[in-house]
Amino acid sequence: MKPAAFDYYTPKTMQEALELLEEFGYDAKILAGGQSLIPTMNMRLARPQALIDIGKLDELAYIRIHDTDVQIGATTRHYTVEHSPHILEVCPMLSEGIKLVGHSQIRSRGTIGGSLVHADSTAELPVILRTLGGTVTLASLEGERTVEAEEFFLTYLTTTIEPNEILVSANFPRIAARTGHAIEEFALRKGDFAIVLAAASVTIAQDGSIESVRLGLGGVDGAPIRLEDVEEELEGQEPDSDLIAECCESIRDAIDPEPDIHASTEYRKDLSVTLSRRVLEKAIQRAKAQFSYV
Ligand SMILES: Cc1cc2nc3c(=O)[nH]c(=O)nc-3n(C[C@H](O)[C@H](O)[C@H](O)COP(=O)(O)OP(=O)(O)OC[C@H]3O[C@@H](n4cnc5c(N)ncnc54)[C@H](O)[C@@H]3O)c2cc1C
User: Per the structure, how many domains does the chain have?
Assistant: First the structure.
């Protein structure tokens, strides 16, 4: 399959890219790694008049470790994040989750910005950003704005980004002391998009109780969700397997995933309960494992 004809632009700077976007508006598409956009164009689901290739904009390819978060530039490849020892240390959920994105060939081309803007409901990066409470920074000729993950992802393949904006970076909070991260998914084959994925971050207090929990799911709604009722139920409690299982069972009634060719509503509910329990248990174990050193 071949895409419809388009004009191809390779801006040398962000300013040039933003000017092109302003000129073409809805008729333009940003091209980053092309791993989602090109198949969509080949299937003629997208027919942009102008492709603005930011894939080689080095000013957007970086990993910056700050005191409280890690900032990743939009054109940073999945591969770079996957193999970064710094990311493993400051945000292990990212290191673990990004390995689940497609195959290594896809991760060597795909970018952080592309995954977040594409916003597939079962993509790993949106779930991680939403679970950890990160932000994205969007730029236009008018300036920059920072948007919380909760506000950024609206529904299937839809975010709050405007046609004249480029996502320039994403900020993921650094893992706190006495905290464990975990992410797991179920896919039909290795490298496929997940049917459901769950991510958890759990902090254990000095007295051994659960201090704070963040639990997120993908593949059960148009956008990634947080299970705030489960989080509240667990906070302040002893990390007990029966309690975790009971809390996760309540997820069945809290979600209403749409059935599709891959899975029924009930199956997605089952997966949500099971994967949530697993990531919570694993995150607690990991938090406890480092506890004695804090
Ligand atoms: C076989 C296969 C399996 C895959 N499996 C998975 C998977 O398991 N999990 C997963 O998450 N993904 C998966 N993907 C998708 C892949 O990870 C893509 O790389 C990713 O979704 C998009 O990143 P990209 O850089 O390739 O973006 P592109 O394809 O270049 O762009 C995607 C969209 O984002 C827009 N865009 C890109 N960058 C920016 C920016 N900085 N600012 C504004 N708009 C921008 C584009 O205009 C386009 O609309 C798979 C893809 C394939 C082909």
Answer: 3
Which of 149, 173, 197 marks a domain boundary?
173
Pocket test for ligand 1, best of 24, 101, 147 (most atoms within 8 A of CB): 101
What sign does the CA torsion over 188, 193, 198, 201 have? positive
Tens-digit pLDDT profile for residues 38-50? 999 999 999 999 9
User: Cα 248 to the chain's mean position, in Å?
Assistant: 22
Q: 3-state DSSP call for residue 72?
A: strand
Would you state the pLDDT for residue 288? Answer: 95
CATH of residue 31 = 3.30.43.10
Q: Which of 40, 58, 106, 185 to mutate to test the pocket of ligand 1 (most atoms within 8 A of CB)?
A: 106
Final residue of a structural domain among 122, 147, 173: 173
pLDDT digits (tens, 9 = 90+) for 109-163: 999 999 999 999 999 999 999 999 999 999 999 999 999 999 999 999 999 999 9
- With beta carbons less than 8 A apart as the criterion, state whether 137 and 145 touch: yes
112: containing domain: 58-173
CA of 138 to the centre of ligand 1 (A): 17
Residue 203 lies in a domain: yes
Distance 104 CA to ligand 1 centre (A): 14
Q: Give yes or no: residues 164 and 246 share one domain.
A: no
- C-alpha 118 to ligand 1 mean position (Å): 6
Q: Could you tell me the two tokens for 180?
A: 């464990």
